[in-house]
Amino acid sequence: MNVELLRKAAAMPVIMADWFTETSTCGTVGCIAGNICLASGEKPWERSTLNGPYAAALADLPNRHLFFTHQWPVAFQEEYSRLDENSIQPADLISRVVEDYIATNGWE
After folding, report:
1. What range defines the domain where residue 90 resides?
2. Cα–Cα distance between 89 and 9 in angstroms, integer?
């Protein structure tokens, strides 16, 4: 797993209009896949396919669980469901999700 790349991507802003849905343009949640591509120097908008599989390969991820909220640990899923309610900052949540993913080797 390319921890440096994941952390660099997690520190980037969440910028898409549909920033927190799995039906977003890149097919992943929280701009994670697009930011992995950007952090590695790639231009995700030039790709004709979803960025999830490509980003997973770039970051040498053991799986793509990071990209889909239904595969996140329950505590993060619950926090995600309360984003608007509690004014949780999406970038803060993404950063914590990524750090947890790294610490547990991809939520083994």
Report:
1. 3-103
2. 16
Q: What is the pTM of this model?
A: 0.80
Q: Is residue 27 part of a domain?
A: yes
- CA dist 70 and 1 (Å) reads 21
User: How many structural domains comprise the chain?
Assistant: 1
Measured CA to CA, the distance from residue 77 to residue 94 in angstroms comes to 11
Task: Give the model confidence (pLDDT) of 50-73 as tens digits.
Answer: 667 778 888 999 998 988 888 999
Contacts of 68 (CB under 8 A, 6+ apart): 22, 28, 29
CB 33 within 8 A of CB 52: yes
Residue 15 lies in a domain: yes
Token reading at 38: 């950007």
Tokens of 77: 């899923």
Measured between alpha carbons, how far is 18 from 61 in angstroms, rounded to an integer? 24
Structure token pair of residue 70: 């239904």
